[in-house]
Design a protein that fits this description.
74 residues, mainly alpha, 0% strand
């Protein structure tokens, strides 16, 4: 995984990790974004988003994703 440098990169990486149900990558993304220079409000919003994505990935573990084939084609 290449570390995301922008919010767009972070959101894209988080979506791909959710599609793959990759909880470790989602946790890594949360750690990476904690080091970014940003307001506390932005940091809290990112933490909440990534926590929600992590919870969804855990709940969906073992379930197939209809979007996974799109990642393979890209």
């Amino acid at each position: 995984m290449t570390a995301p440098a922008t919010l767009t990169d972070l959101i894209r990486a988080a979506a791909h990790a959710l599609i793959r149900r990759d909880t470790l990558e989602i946790q890594d993304l949360a750690r990476i974004s904690e080091g970014w220079l940003q307001s506390e409000e932005e940091a809290e919003a990112q933490r909440l988003l990534l926590d929600a994505i992590l919870e969804a990935a855990c709940l969906l573990e073992g379930e197939p994703s209809e979007l996974e084939s799109a990642l393979e084609d890209a």
